[in-house]
From TrEMBL:
Organism: Kaistia geumhonensis
Protein name: Lipoprotein-releasing system ATP-binding protein
The keyword DNA-binding appears for this protein: no
GO molecular function list: ATP binding; hydrolase activity
Record-stated family: Belongs to the ABC transporter superfamily.
Amino acid sequence: PPVLRLQGIERHYREGAGRLSVLSGADLSVSTGEIVALVAPSGAGKSTLLHIAGLLERPDKGDVLIDGNSVTAVTDADRTAIRRNKIGFVYQFHHLLPEFTALENVMMPQLIRGLPRKEAATRAEALLAYMRLAERKNHRPSELSGGEQQRVAIARAVANAPRLLLADEPTGNLDPTTAHYVFDALAALVRASGLAALIVTHNMDLAERMDRRITLSGGKVVEL
Ligand code: ADP
Ligand code: ADP
């Protein structure tokens, strides 16, 4: 089965006396090793879709399946566990902890999960090396460039070996050359690790380099 499957997702918000239908029958599958670009104008429902796929929000109707298992009838506690174990998030702004080094930031999700410090450090070092940041591991976020900060954030997002990577404009804050470099690092990691990735972007050059492009139109997912 695909890593992520959305089936007939509906999400409505109350709007005065009426309601605003943000998603109205959205269907989407993302498979292992696949990178899907989500390109749509502001207000189209991209964040809502990412939040539902990331189990941060429940749909009003429809089903979310992770690795073929429906998470609809699952308790909030179990959804949190699935999110921690199976889903990594990258945002436009890195949200790294400023008082910790790059290495410590990448270790953090593993320590929270209860892994021994030595094991967490070994994996964090491997991921930082993979992101070509071996020489930067003892730097704090403020001592890193924007592109380096985002590569640390990507390493942190995959530290717990998730199945699905969700990214909201991961290169939106970077100049075009750096954006391409960061995207290449992300794509290499996704493909090498057999992750599935759904990436919101406004950068059409980058979207063209992903495996598929989708948009949201009338609350439905449409292939571009
Ligand atoms: P995008 O990420 O594509 O800009 P969003 O998913 O953030 O779109 O929002 C889609 C629409 O839903 C927007 O019109 C927004 O104002 C509305 N919306 C989002 N979240 C809420 C909410 N919690 N309550 C009411 N309306 C919301
Ligand atoms: P370990 O030796 O602890 O198993 P690895 O060095 O094999 O760690 O990899 C650490 C993580 O880095 C992998 O689990 C994977 O998610 C990611 N990774 C993916 N491809 C590579 C690669 N070619 N080299 C190193 N790490 C990779």
